[in-house]
Task: structure prediction
Amino acid sequence: MNEAAEQSQGVGINKRVAYVLGGILTLFLVYTAGFGTMTDSVQRGLPLMIAFAIIFLTVPIKATPSSNGAVNSVLFLINALFFIANILSITYIIWVEDDLVYRLGNPNTWDVLAFSAGFLCVVEAARRVTPPAFFWVVMAFIAYALFGNYIPGNFGHPGYPIGELVSYLYFSNEGIFGLALNVMVNVIFIFLLFGTMVEVSGLGNSIVKIGLALVGRLRGGPALSAIFASGLFGSISGSGASNVLTTGTFTIPLMSKVGYRPAFAGAVEAVASTGGHIVPPIMASTVFVMAEIIGVPYIQIAAAAAIPALLYYMCLFAIVYLRAHKDDIQPIPVGEAPSLFETLKKGGIFFLPVGLLILLLMRGFTPTYSCFYSVVFMLALMLLTGKPNRNPKAYLDICDTTARNSLMLFGCLASIGIIIGIIALTGVGVKFSILVSSIAEANLFYALTMAMVAAMILSMGMPVLPAYLLVVVVSGTALQKLGLTPLASHMFVFYFASLAGITPPVCISAYTAAGIAGSNPVRTAMLALWVGSIGFVIPYMFAYNPALLLMGTTSEILWVTSMCLVGIASFALCLEGYLRATLHIISRGIFLLAGLMLIFPDSSVNLIGLGTFAACFVVNFVFSTQLGARPKREAQ
Result:
């Protein structure tokens, strides 16, 4: 057997072993979700061990294999060593957990060896599955912990010996096995499984068809249905790119068919899919982590997120509706829109588990139990209806898919544990918040902008949850010191972490949509940034207007929300530049100014903005053809 055949056979064996391990990982975490967790070392350590074992089996050390047989042999040996070290280090911790508790802070030689081997496995696994920028951030924190004694000024610290550092980070609840990993194994994974089941059951396509049945006969109906479907499905799935692939394969071609340009169709799908992260009730599962960190009930955060999500999608609805009129896009012909009754008849039954999940969450059940019962219900319906089929392998494939989808999250969140541990150990979080406060000089806008830039840079190419955690542990305290409530500061960071999917240069959702649309990726990304630009404004709106997060009296909430809705309409008119005819540049500028006044946190300014908007709207609506409006432009 030649070398290539041997290598291919080895890869095949690795994939089969990884497939079995993926099933074990999924079944273990489903069991503990329904029947109670085990000791911390087992509940967190065993899933991490299995996830890393799958990484070392399936993700190569190098992105491109070498043609040199000797080099490949060395790489295979290194891979095997990591695989074995991962298993032995976590097995050791599980085996001697009771003794380790008493030795914490004074580990023996075997402890240090196990901690060091496990720590190296975490770093290597993160290198393989996380974006390079994130990996280097982790390495920078490790270097800071080791060599802080060489740093002058307030950010310096005595430095920590490597043995003491890895012991603290690998075993204490402030490090790798801390909050981030705990939420991953007890909450996030079961929601990933539910999202996979929703996708396999065909519910995503049913949501698209229901949207078409409801709004397909309106101008821009396919785009409006895409927004509806992607927002709803994205809240469940938790991945913008996955959401694009699920709903976009149907909605993007349909948008192109009725007249939207491919780049614009891809941009709309990317923006709608990315926005799913901010849509209650599930919000890509990040809401459950936020609730645990700031100590606010889940239902309060989900309710607070409702108005900002409404503003985001209302702006998107307005833009695609105006674009449909500007480019003379006609409704779907009679008879081509799906029947609402037939769609519900064929796939509506799979909405029941989603409804059960929402009902249980609203009744106060924990997210884990709520999702467990919804998974069981979904499984029963899939078996009953035969979707995808009744072959046991189809359900093992669901387990395998869920496990593979979780690998980046395991790598990211274990590494986030390292960062959180180092921040706690060195006190750099407090030092950073003092620095931000001094730079901002008590100016909240400057501090918010610094947090926004940090979130946009650090979240490039990353899932929403680890991106949110990475930024909030560093900047959240600084924002709160300048007067923001914990909920507002966390929501602010969460929004910008979510928008990474449409933020160049690493805008994965936009590039994925461009691939489906067959459009230029850069043009699609820039259009997505333009169409979704309101998402970069909304966090500032609720930072200065807490009533948008339901913090205030009923009258305040109603006033602020109504003014912001009109402001959103004004922004949409400015962005699209159309109202019965193409708007003059002066009119677009007036609508922009009116929008800014309408979202300003002062009622008297709001009234001026409302009057400005009304006057500009009426003049352009009634006398558009007499104001020098230019002819319709070609669609972008």
